Amino acid sequence: QEEKIFAGKVLRLHVCTMEGAEWLEEVPEDTTVEKLKERCLKHCVPGSLEDPKTVTHHKLIHATSEKVLTDTKTVLEENIQDRDVLLLIKKRAPPPLPKMADVSAEEKRKQEQKAPDKDAILKATANLPSRNVDRTVAHHNMRDFQTELRKILVSLIEVAQKLLALNPDAVELFKKANAMLDEDEEDRVDEIALRQLTEMGFPESRAVKALRLNHMSVTQAMEWLIEHADDPTVDAPLPGQPPSEATAEAGASSAEETAGPSSEADGEEAKDELTEIFKKIRRKREFRPDPRAVIALMEMGFDEKEVVDALRVNNNQQNAACEWLLGDRKPSPEDLDKGIDTNSPLFQAILENPVVQLGLTNPKTLLAFEDMLENPLNSTQWMNDPETGPVMLQISRIFQTLNRT
Asked: Residue limits of the UBA domain (predicted)?
């Protein structure tokens, strides 16, 4: 009587097997999952309990939650309710351990696929004829190519200026080109970032300097301003910083005013105006060294002028500029402004190419040459341009063809 009074609640559970057998099991809620599993196996597989491993090789799964039931827990602890559906399935057998012969064969296969070491390579190539390829020579040839390309651009700019000066619409064309160059991203300061810093109380000039030094990052600029708040040189202009736009425009205006009265004929006035436009374009395309690289190299003890020269020769690459300063300093900054020999077969072949001839009459080609001359990293942009790309492609092909011969 006591067992009946204090016995737990009896649950009726619907049990299924993978073979399609179905039946009801009535068990108290304090029954362990292992006991329930034994009852299920006794019902569906008679005589299976003779092997004690049979119970461990099977598992019960709650159909609704897809949860595998733990053997040591009770039905109540597994939160099984009346009329729940359980699935009895056999566990997958673990994969058999590989035989020693299979292991040896696998190791042998891995050894055969292993890349050869240096000794094996030398042994296999001992009878091959040696070809000495000096990597420093290859690097030097690449540097010579860059230097030669600059010379070609310098000479082509002179030819393009002479051809475009004969165009009656040249002045108007280059005024438009000059206006395009006014939209230079290098000199533009992020107004929102500048306003955030000035609202914090930093002077505008210092905020502009901090933003340019930190690539327009407000957070880094603010840290720089706090760090250099007591620095006496905090308000000094950045090394290599070009003159202000007002000064440049004033100089250009005065030059135009000087050129205007001194010219009498209309043709002379147009020629002088075109010359001034060329000067303004060249002034806007002057090399702008990376301020961070300048400061870092000057802290090593180098003079500002030689640091700017090093960065100009090495396209603002700080490490390459440092090697140039510590090395033979070739090519020199003066070499960058020299043109190619106009009587050389290379230059004659370039000028005789019809695509190049047509391109030299386009003001955009001249702008591309000017830009690549002072900013070699922008060459990809001009190579992909539908107007200037074919010209650059022909110059490259002619150079490579003649360089091989």
From this structure: 182-228, 288-328
Query: Residue 67 forms beta bridges with which residues?
Result: 62
Q: Global pTM?
A: 0.40
- Write down how long the chain is: 405
Quick check: 224 and 213 in contact, CB under 8 A?
A: yes
* Structural domain containing residue 333: 145-235+290-404
- Whole-angstrom distance, CA of residue 273 vs CA of residue 289: 29
Instruction: Please state, in angstroms and rounded to a whole number, the distance separating the CA atoms of residues 241 and 187.
Output: 10
Which of 90, 109, 128 is the endpoint of a domain?
90
Instruction: State pLDDT tens for residues 136-183.
Output: 444 444 445 566 777 888 888 888 878 877 776 666 666 665 565 554
What CA dihedral angle connects 121, 122, 127 and 128, to 10 degrees? 70
CA gap 233, 35 in Å, rounded: 85
Give the whole-angstrom CA distance, residue 52 versus residue 175. Answer: 97
Distance of alpha carbon 36 from alpha carbon 12, whole angstroms: 12
Read off the tokens for 249.
């425009």
- The Cα–Cα gap between 260 and 252 comes to 12
User: Vertex 56, ends 52 and 59: CA angle to 5°?
Assistant: 135
